[in-house]
Amino acid sequence: MVEKFSFPSMPRPTHSYPEGSPEWIWGMSMRLGLNLESTERNGASHLSRTLRSVLPHKPWLHVPIGKPCLDPKKWLEGSTGHDWQAVYFCVKPFDRDLADLIENECSASRTSVKQQAVPALKAANPHATQAQIGDMVGLSQGRVAQVLLENRVYTPKTNTPRKVAQYKISQYTKPATAADKIRATFGPDFARQLKDAL
Question: For tag attachment on the chain, is the N or C end more exposed, with fewer CB atoms within 10 Å?
Answer without folding.
Answer: C
